[in-house]
Write a structure and sequence with these properties.
Layout: H1 3-19, E1 27-29, E2 35-37, H2 39-47, H3 51-61, E3 68-74, E4 78-83, H4 85-96, E5 111-115, H5 127-145, E6 149-153, H6 162-173, H7 175-183, H8 187-200, H9 202-216, H10 220-244, H11 260-272, E7 276-279, E8 282-285, E9 300-303, H12 311-325, E10 330-333, H13 340-352, E11 361-364, E12 370-371, H14 388-406, H15 412-432, E13 440-441, H16 444-447, H17 455-472, H18 487-496, H19 499-509, H20 512-532, H21 540-563
Parallel strand pairs: 5-6, 5-10, 10-11, 12-13
Antiparallel strand pairs: 1-2, 2-4, 3-4, 7-8, 8-9
Helix pairs in contact: 1-3, 2-3, 4-18, 6-7, 6-8, 6-9, 6-10, 7-10, 8-9, 11-12, 12-13, 14-15, 17-20, 17-21, 18-20, 18-21, 19-20, 20-21
Bound molecules: arginine.
Length: about 575
């Protein structure tokens, strides 16, 4: 149990007695004591009594003697709480003996569908897909570790009118040649060439149109060519996922086309429920609260005027499938912020139709853009969107070069391995350590630096701890007595016992920068501790105790970074 919770549980009954009703004690970490509560101030205002008197009365009822060495009223009516060393040491010992590091398996396991990555067939993945992949994968790792059943849904863009043109281009190019180009990851040139011919050549346009009709009609020869395009693209995306070291696999592709058979029934049911309106020839639903800038109601188009179903119909069918067939109660959509409105409308319509109701709920895990050093959307020198693999290769190359320079003793193979872990770690961490609602600037020097809130800093802290144990030649004894005489030891202990709380919060809000910030604080606190509290130069119980603190820090760093999808090399 974390200390905020422990102290809250102890203070709450005392506050309730004084107030005659439940009061949240609002216990926070503080500079003045270890923890502070300011709830007596608001309560005193409500009761019309002097705040210090109210605070003193709360303390009379509070049973905190076994947890706090000092509990006193301070200033205008704060409660200052100093945690007893023995109590803190007891929590550290419990943590050391706990393989889950103070993070219990959930008592309410849910089926969670995470819709993430979702690149488009025969199109290059761009940095937006990078963010979705990195954030979605962290969510999958975290929720799985907490004991939820996580279903990864890679909502691949594998259907729609562009496939007429793409298939015709494939025919013109020849299947072997096209397959080669696509599996090499030349998706952009393939797409652009198709587009260029489409724009320039009327006969090609006509063929493309007929091809779309054949595709939608289920023509076997056309379907075979379409599958070839999808297959080659999936293969390519899988190589990117491997490079990126994410947990997505081939089994997780659930492309838009897999919902095709469900689209007709979705629209029919919306009609039966009286939710459909015709608007400019298209079939639309107008969800209750959605109005545009001009105050006009905004429609969600479920069938276009040409009779085709679009993106929204597919998303509705997917919700119905996820809650109904898969039994999911939490649906996460890791998609850029520009699509927020789309998802709000889709959720509203799904709720109206009875496909999404409590306890099932859908959340848009939105994110901002990645910017270049000029503060504008990241572009290549030629002004095009940056190719994702190029970015990953550059990260690995830079990190490998830095690793060789920093530690020439590592062999060639280990340098390459470390370089990969650091490069990919740096990319992921730069993303996950920024508030996902905001844009962030991709800055190579900063993200690869060994100083500051970066992956290499945390990985280095981990490897340093491992080197302590290599030199010690022994492991920490988890049942060792813990002594927290030094302030630096106490400070580290406080950070360590806070892991569970952060993980619990992030599982709710999926704001991974809070987990990143916590790990950074932990590593910095460890660094200060290690400077002041020698481990290998002392003997006996103090050394045993310090080894436990080192070991715990290493384990928390490793687990925390694992949850962010980042590896922890033993040496670097
Ligand atoms: N393929 C889309 C894109 O590249 C993202 C799909 C997101 N997921 C969804 N269920 N709509 O923008």
């Amino acid at each position: 149990m974390d200390l905020e919770k422990l102290l809250t549980d102890r203070l709450a009954p005392a506050f309730a007695t004084v107030a005659g009703a439940p009061v949240d004690p609002v216990v926070r970490r503080s500079q003045r004591a270890d923890f502070q509560s300011d709830a007596a101030l608001a309560l005193a205002r409500r009761l019309g009594r002097p705040p210090r008197a109210v605070a003193a009365e709360v303390l009379e009822y509070a049973e905190v003697a076994d947890v706090c060495s000092v509990a006193e009223v301070s200033g205008p009516g704060f409660l200052n709480l100093t945690v007893a060393d023995e109590a803190l040491a007891g929590l550290v010992r419990a943590l050391a003996a706990d393989p889950r590091l103070g993070v219990p398996v959930t008592v309410e396991p849910e089926t969670v569908v995470i819709d993430y990555s979702a690149p488009n067939v025969a199109k290059e993945m761009h940095v937006g897909h990078l963010r979705s992949t990195v954030i979605g994968d962290a969510a999958a790792r975290l929720l799985e570790w907490l004991g939820h059943r996580v279903l990864r849904a890679n909502h691949l863009g594998d259907w729609g009118t562009p496939f007429g043109m793409l298939i015709e281009h494939l025919v013109d190019l020849g299947e072997a040649e096209a397959a080669q180009e696509l599996s090499m990851g030349d998706l952009d040139s393939f797409y652009k060439a198709a587009r260029a011919t489409f724009d320039a050549d009327e006969a090609f346009r006509e063929r493309s149109r007929r091809r779309v009709v054949a595709l939608q009609g289920g023509d076997p020869a056309t379907l075979r060519l379409w599958r070839l395009l999808v297959r080659q693209s999936e293969r390519y995306f899988t190589t990117v996922y491997d490079r990126l070291d994410v947990t997505l696999t081939e089994r997780d592709f659930h492309g838009e086309s897999s919902y095709n058979d469900l689209l007709g029934p979705v629209v029919e049911d919306l009609d039966r429920l009286g939710l459909l309106r015709e608007s400019d020839g298209a079939s639309c639903v107008f969800p209750p609260d959605s109005v545009g800038r001009d105050g006009e109601p905004l429609p969600l188009i479920v069938r276009k005027s040409d009779g085709g179903y679009g993106y929204s119909a597919t998303d509705l069918a997917a919700i119905r499938h996820r809650t109904g067939t898969l039994g999911a109660t939490r649906l996460l959509y890791v998609v850029g912020l520009p699509q927020r409105r789309h998802f709000e409308m889709v959720y509203a319509v799904a709720a109206q139709a009875g496909w999404l109701f409590p306890p099932a709920r859908a959340e848009h895990v939105g994110f901002g853009s990645i910017l270049g050093s000029d503060g504008r959307m990241l572009r290549s020198r030629a002004g095009e969107s940056v190719k994702l693999v190029g970015l990953l290769e550059e990260a690995i190359a830079r990190a490998t070069a830095l690793t060789r320079k920093r530690n020439p003793e590592l062999g060639e193979a280990e340098s390459a391995e470390v370089g990969r872990a650091v490069g990919i770690g740096a990319i992921k961490y730069a993303d996950l350590s920024s508030d996902r609602h905001k844009d962030y600037v991709l800055d190579w020097d900063r993200m690869l630096s060994l100083d500051g809130n970066t992956a290499p800093y945390l990985q280095y802290a981990y490897s340093r701890i491992r080197s302590i144990f290599r030199r010690a030649g022994v492991a920490a004894r988890p049942d060792a007595a813990i002594s927290l005489a030094e302030p630096a030891e106490r400070a580290l202990a406080f950070e360590l016992v806070g892991f569970g709380r952060v993980v619990g919060e992030v599982a709710e809000n999926l704001e991974f920068h809070h987990l990143a910030g916590y790990l950074y604080r932990l590593a910095a606190t460890f660094s200060a501790y290690y400077e002041r509290c020698p481990v290998l130069r002392v003997d006996g119980p103090v050394r045993e105790s310090r080894l436990v603190l080192c070991d715990l820090t290493g384990r928390v760093l490793q687990q925390g970074l694992y949850l962010l999808g980042i590896r922890t090399p033993e040496r670097m």
